[in-house]
Amino acid sequence: MIPMQTSIPILNSSIDFEFAVGLLHGAAVVDEYRTLADLEGVFDDEDLRSSMDPTILVYSVSCVFPVKNGKEGGLFFGTTSIRPGTVGDEYFMTKGHFHSKIDTAEFYWGIKGEGVLLLMNEDRTIRAERMVPGSLHYIPGRTAHRTVNVGEEPMIFGACWPSDAGHNYEKIRQEGFSARVRRGPHGPEVVEV
Ligand code: M6P
Ligand code: ZN
Question: pLDDT category, 6, cuts 50, 70, 90?
Fold first, then answer.
């Protein structure tokens, strides 16, 4: 099959996006990697996380920033791949964040694998949406978002967010999410805490 590919000319260099697999290629693509060492305090069992191999890759993010970070009116675009795995019975997941400019929204969409998107309001009310290839998720402003891989293969999703949104990790670092996603006897469970 011929892969569907789109070329986005930006920053005087071109970016190729392979829709089907979520891969971004090009000189302007910025890749970031989060290993277990980068995720202190994220999982419920911090003692277990800190005893595990710190080099284990939990997720990677490939991004395109066509305008300067913080500029109003632009859009950023990225794909995230969360590896399969758990810390105890808690599935690998992203750190999760509110936006610094708290009213800004974001779109996520599922590309590969099986995931759960946790969405938490400022009053800590939580809801979960199932992420599968082709699922589309609107994250309203004032809503923290975290993605969890509940499958046995990498879970890949796309994201598009305003260039002035910013990431507020601090509130989540201090207060966490009000639910965790765990491997239960009959499959993934969203457990309120
Ligand atoms: C998505 C977007 C990015 C985010 C990434 C990983 O691709 O929301 O802005 O950085 O997921 O999530 P986090 O930053 O919470 O680790
Ligand atoms: Zn976001």
Answer: confident
